[in-house]
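Notebook, p. 212. Picked up where the previous page left off. The plan for this session was modest: take the two constructs that came back from the sequencing core last week, fold each one, and keep the raw output in the notebook itself so nobody has to go hunting through shared drives later. Recording the first one now, exactly as returned: residue sequence, then the structure token string.
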Amino acid sequence: MELIRKVAFHGSAYDFGLFEEGFGPMSATIELTRVLEDPLDADADVLVLGHHLPGFDANRLLERAPTRARAVAVISHGPFPLNGTPAPTPLGAMAWHFRWHSEPGLAEAVIDLIEDQLNAEELYREQHRRFLLLVEDEINFASYFIPLILRELTERTLSLLPATASPERLREKAQNERPVLLLASSFEQAADCMERYGDRLVGVISALGFPLGGKNDSDAGIRLLEKRNQLQAEFPVVIMSARAHREAEITGLGASFMNKTSPHLLTMLQQHLLHHFGFGDFIFRMPGLDTQEVARARTLADMISCLEWIPLESFLYHAGRRHFSNWLGVHGYLQLAEIIRVIPASEGEAARRKLIDLLRAA
């Protein structure tokens, strides 16, 4: 696994101070240095470029000569850089672009995000981690969303631990069991993620318009929904757009909708993570009646109790869609989640008893 242990920062003293402040929680495990000379020669796993001057073009800098770092993050003050998308594109290979806002956790989130991308294949094959895909080509929105999503993923992973868990146990669980955040800025990148990790993908949060075939496509999010349906995947999709008049169309296609112009956008995003992607309570429902709540489980003990009495139809509805596996997976029970990824409906009550026994032994 490619762990990030050295981060080099090239930029003004002011930008470095901002990054260092948000980088604080990582200072015990990662070495952060400020580079004053040629940044491309810095000995680091990740090179962070913090310039925000009109004449500065990170992509041209990276094209000029190869960097020793495995990845580059460009964090700017608006309105620069004028080019570049959050996820790497061929123009600026391995360079992620972000923009400073009032979120001090952006620095930590950027490093966590890049480490997730560098290790996605191993985390999928070897550790059986769960994945959440963000599809966004606008730097402003990506920079707002990513810290919140990663913070929520970490909190949900730790939520089933007892209150007496040690700080060391909390850190270990967060590092080794948190769901992986994938970032895509084009249809092709998003479709590739869905094909590679779809069976462990707990959900997709996507803009409505983003590049497809190298050109901006105002309906690329709709094409992504069609791709999900082609794969016969069950994971939920949330489409974000400022075009509120498209809401009925999007919900009619089986996705949820978020208005990007809403002053409550971040709160809405958090609610979708909790209620649609399995990061909150497990809500038992009946097939064909997605709005009818049968029962709710907040802890493993609650889950066992509910499984004892819920209608068999509700159990089979969730079991056949990997809902139990995903809920356990995003809360850090990776081995158990892998065992019960698919519970054959044909086993009926026997499958229910098997799940209850596995949960009691966890």
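Okay, moving on. Second construct, recorded in the same format:
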Amino acid sequence: MKLDTPESYERPEVRELLAQLRTELDGFLEGMMSAKNVSPKIPHDINSIVFLGVGGSGIVGDLLSDITAKRRDLPILCHKDYFRPPYLTRDALIVAVSYSGNTTETLSAMVEAYDAGLPTFAITSGGLMKEICKKLGIPVVEVRAGLLPRMAVPHMLGAAVSVLASAEFVRITTDEFKSAIEEAKRAQESVEVHKPLESNVAKYTANCIYNKIAFIYSHGYLSSVGYRLKCQLNENAKMLAVNQGLPEVLHNDIEGWNPAVANCLAVVMLRYKSEHMVIREALDRMETILKDRLGVAVSKIVSEGDSDITNILSAMVICDYVSLYAAIMRGADPIRVDRIRSMREGIMSNVRLLEQMARRFKVESK
């Protein structure tokens, strides 16, 4: 089997991504340390937290929202656009996240939020965001540079958790996070390269989906992991994927499936052992219909942790390995994202917006 042969991992781009995957979980604690000495002056009457970000940086808000769902008393929203949400008032805390620091959408929305007087802090590795924040006095957490933006998610997420926990907006201790990371490392070991396909859920899943369009189904706090997997398959494996959540898919998606698409589509279900009975029955029923009645390939990734944080981190790292193995099966370069770069460089309005902001704040355009 291709995924069990050493030569499959010899390409430089595969080695590079694998190296970043193997240190991914350590990035959470590194990100928390990056934020240790950053204490934004946040008003105590905040009634919502709004994350600004797109792409890999935008996923930070999605993951944090799910991780803290049972550990906070105010909503966390994720906004992925050029403009700040017009309904926001000064009771909303803005968290602007851009790993490169040069994401036009996030910079534009952050500046709009600042102009509207909204309390703001930023997370970045540098770029225009860092320089603009310095000019405006916006607190900024600077995380380690030099990573693929999609692989810097743990660093940025750890930084966000640290700041929001210090401000007592979320209730997560460092010990809780460390415990979840250790559990996730055990899950990671179970899908490592040396584990054969028959006992490796990441290899098995990749083998089921690599030559198809993948539909990812999840529920509750694994929804953000489903979205992360969709994006990782897009960028690492260069394949189309769709992310959907229960119970909504029971009211629409299921009607669209038929045997005619069974050969070109596949399903990945993200599950956890402590599912509510109604969710368990719904997913089991859906699997039966898809596999037995319609002949669709269905694979499952089941998190075995005892807490939502553990399940999220474990599922995330397993899914990242799925994307690597799918890239290997497809012969894709999991590092380069030439189409994304070409798209962004070809949108001249993006270029002009960055230049305008650089001129306005008298900083160097990166």
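Notes on construct two before I forget. The two ends are 45 Å apart (CA to CA).
Flagging for discussion at group meeting.
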